[in-house]
Amino acid sequence: MEYTVRVPKSLKKKYNVMRFHTALGVDFKTWNHTKMERENNMKEFKSLDDEMPKYGAGSEFGRDQREEARRKKYGIHMKKYRPEDQPWILHVGGKNGKKYKGIREGGVSENSSWYVFMQGKDGAFEAYPVEEWYKFSLVPRYKALNAEEAEKEFERTVSCT
Q1: For residue 137, what pLDDT band results from cuts at 50, 70 and 90?
Q2: One domain for residues 70 and 138
Q3: Same domain, 23 and 87
Q4: 66 lies in which domain range?
Q5: What is the pLDDT of residues 64-121, one digit of tens each?
Q6: Best CA proximity match to 76, nearest among 65, 68, 84
Q7: Is 158 helix (H, G, I), strand (E, B) or coil?
Q8: At 51, is the pLDDT very low, low, confident or very high (cuts 50, 70, 90)?
Q9: What is the pLDDT of residue 46?
Q10: How far apart are CA 47 and CA 66, in angstroms?
């Protein structure tokens, strides 16, 4: 049997692969309500270079211009915030359901090309290249304690016994 395979010249959509560890027991058939969005890390990204105030008390006059001139002199290029580079967040089962975080995997398609095949109405297959691979892991629902909080909790549990 022979099939026709076409590769579209203009790609309107990007195709990505989601990978889940088998121990998570992910079954797409049981999912009824899902929501997928990009994580917003803009605050963390901006906080890296916002150590000193820009104006007012404690600020330096012309600091931004000096820093920019220094970066140009030494060839340092600052990365811009790109929302499409942020991890995916997948919500399954509404507000109280499971939450998965998808981080882009590098090196998967370095030495190979991956395609998604979809059969059209005429019986021919259309091959779309896979852009990125994302590894999804379960986000824990509990908050980790810092050292001070853990010490207080330990003292509380020791004093109760």
Answers
A1: very high
A2: no
A3: yes
A4: 42-80
A5: 788 888 888 888 877 777 878 889 999 998 878 889 999 998 777 778 888 999 998 9
A6: 68
A7: helix
A8: low
A9: 61
A10: 19
Residue 14 to residues 84, 100, 130, 151, 155, Cα–Cα distance (Å): 12, 21, 7, 48, 53
Domain closes at, from 65, 80, 95? 80
For residues 20 and 26, is the Cβ–Cβ distance under 8 A?
yes
Q: Which two tokens stand for residue 159?
A: 């004093």
C-beta separation of 136 from 101 below 8 A = yes
Residues 108 and 90 in one domain: yes
> The whole model's pTM is what?
0.64
Residues 87, 103 contacting (CB under 8 angstroms)? yes
Amino acid at the residue 31: W
> What is the number of structural domains in the chain?
2
Instruction: Compute the distance between CA of residue 78 and CA of residue 132 in angstroms, rounded to an integer.
Output: 24
**Residues 14 and 30 placed together within one structural domain of the fold:** yes
Using CB atoms within 10 A of its CB, is residue 77 exposed (0-12), middle (13-18) or buried (19+)? exposed
